[in-house]
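Record now logged for everyone:
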Amino acid sequence: MPTPGNLILREAYQPLAYGVETVDLDFNLDPQATVVTSRLKCVRNPDAAAGPVVLFGEALELVSIAIDGAAPAEGQVRKTESGLEVNVSADEVVLTIVTRINPSANLTLSGLYQSRGGFYTQCEAEGFRRITYFPDRPDVMARYTVRLEADAATCPVLLSNGNLLETGTLPNGRHFARWEDPFLKPSYLFALVAAELSALERTVTTMSGRDVLLQVWVEARDLDRVEHAMDSLIHSMRWDEEVFGLELDLDRFMIVAVSDFNMGAMENKGLNIFNTKYVLANPDTGTDLDFENVESVVAHEYFHNWTGNRVTCRDWFQLTLKEGLTVFRDQQFTADMMARASDSPAAAASARAVTRIANVRGLRSGQFPEDAGPMAHPIRPDSYQEINNFYTATVYQKGAEVIRMILTLLGREGFRNGMDLYFSYHDGQAVTCDDFVGCMAEANGADLDLFMRWYSQAGTPRLKAEGAWDAATGTYTLTLSQSTPPTPGQPEKLPLHIPVAVGLIGPDGADLPLRLEGEANAGDTTRVLNLKEASRSWRFTGLAAEPVPSVLRGYSAPVILEIDEDDERLAFRMAHDADPFNRWDAAQRFMERVVLGLAADAAAGRKLEVPQAFGHAFRALLVNESLDPAFVAETLALPSEAYLLERMQPADPAPLRAALIHLMREVGQAMQADFLGRYLDLEVEGEYRYHPADAGKRSLRNLCLRYLAAWGGPTAIDLAAKQFEHAGNMTERYGALAALVQSDAPQRTEALAAFHDRYRDDALVLDKWFMLQATAWRWSDAAPTTLDQVRALMANPAFSLSNPNKVYSLLGGYFKSNAAEFHRPDGAGYAFWAEQVVALDRNNPQVASRMARALEGWRKFTPEIQARIRVALEQVAATEGLSPDVAEIVGKALG
């Protein structure tokens, strides 16, 4: 329900007077003039106040409307700012609505649009109203039948949700197909595809014995790059059956890849539409990370079939109900797949740890800055102006962490019981976050009322840990305190329910069995302490010597841990902490301390020196061959600049970049022999395979190469050039190219040209090429500025402002992942940002708003930088005709 200023409030939710029971859609597809006929059986909602049938519409030409087969009476249909209102008195009414749309001119990529001659849809969140007039809210669930008619030559494949009923030929070279979806769904899950595509098909048997058809549809030239996506789909099906008892409910499941797509993928019921980036992969064009991302995203969208489709959101404020839960599910799936592919229990544990570390890296670099900025919001927001702006890291990644905390509190069996109850109560319904947590609580007899504050409170909590050792009594007292900084609209914060997994490490490096005061016997070596107050203490007894605390094991809560640890203690935990996540975190904390210290020295003009203790700890991990290479690679990789900028007070990208470059050069030079030795030992023999063990070796090998190239010695550069020239797969080739580009080596120009020539006709691979140059560091003042290079690359024939992937790779890479070059002292980066945001906003506000968010956290920077950014923000804010998407981002940034 709108309020002044177009602000939508969660508390203002009201059900519509009329819902929709069935939807019959007929599409006569034409590039410039598609005619859509919709027949809606509308029924009065007994739980709602009386009112008209409310229909939303945007960018539509209304051809006709009929009520129960007759023309409406004068005044019976009223045009509104958001669509139409139809005044009727009957409890049931059939509306027949004919609209005309122009898919070829739809550059928003929302609703029905064209890509490479085919027709595609994207209806989440409010794209269906760009197809036909409809109450396209998620709480309006109906059964759909769809008839598609198109030119048979240009669109031989006609797909929609559900099961295929009929196909046939028509005069004038046209043909048709009819589809039926037997399940209730909201309109945001509607999809159609009409294009010239080919499919990889497999028939598999579900756990109940049904044979189902799986199809992955792509352009014919890409069929050799979809085997991994198909395997990922089958693995996802089996995992959901085994872990949650959830089975595919349709006779077929389809994935379609399209090159023009605003999002990563979309979970439309039975017809998932994907950005090609998350479908296509083979050894020559995809890195190990690409293979991992394909598997993860395929799983995510498939898991939505139950957590999002069968049970959906009552309103868009509940978005984390489906997204946070499904991100959590795909993270668990990825960890399980990595572990199952491992050849020993130790390797499996390491694979799980590496997956968890990757999750937390993303949270810290993407969600923490969001929580600290003007767009900070709870995982369930209380208001929004444009819903597209709330497909955020907070809703997704932090939402997944909240679900993970529920698992920690209830255990695996308790969590599964809660999921079973959730589906038994709410299958086929549109529900709220309260309904989900309520089922978890009921199934386990648990009190989660206080825990619900995670859904309503924004900001990243600070968890302070302080320990006190009493040698006389052999006791160690751990005091945990929590606080959350103010966020926009929430100046005061209440205590949260924070599960804190804790261990104590003895002087010999071994974990100690834990016994709390009042307990008769010692228990496990890791305990979950439930902090529900502002501060609380726990006393551990029966200890022979002062322990070293290992706090927040497995990253049991999405908080910033504040604990006083000197370099010696961090090095000790890097060497001995039995929790692999905390071992990694100790190394990251040490790196953070060193880098920020170097940055402070650089800002003050002091000489930069890397502490010897850090070098010793770094080398100890590098040469430790008993550790999994994937884990070592994660542990020795630098914290992201985005995260480090959040930790600087105030943030200043130039000295931070100087510190990072100095550290990499110094470490690369000091340990060149160690890096070279590990590099040579980690070579993977034989044909490429996507496997955790091989991927881990390639990851650490490429990391060694980057440190060596940063040093810049001739041996290192020759090594990178040789790997680039003789690489047998994209992981090796791209890793070598990245090492050359992130250096001042003259061979970088030759390698970039060779890479472009090899892949000039492969759009996805060229996205990597664009991204690598947009994010490149300047290792000498003589190098050209990145902004000049980005401007030049925009003139490359492969680049297009209308293709989201290209924008995200080149402009997004520069704005969001190259802080020192973007925040240049002359302000030219900001002027370029304003220019591109306004240009993008004319056609695709969703993409424009994502670029606009690059400056939302501007108040964390130095006063001099803030002054330059404000000029750019005000310039965009003053632009006439600015979309609500961008206006909300810039308006909130300016405050």
Summary: The first strand starts at residue 2 and ends at 3. The chain has 26 helices and 31 strands. Residues 462-557 form a domain with the Immunoglobulin-like fold (CATH 2.60.40.1840). The first helix runs from residue 227 to 244.
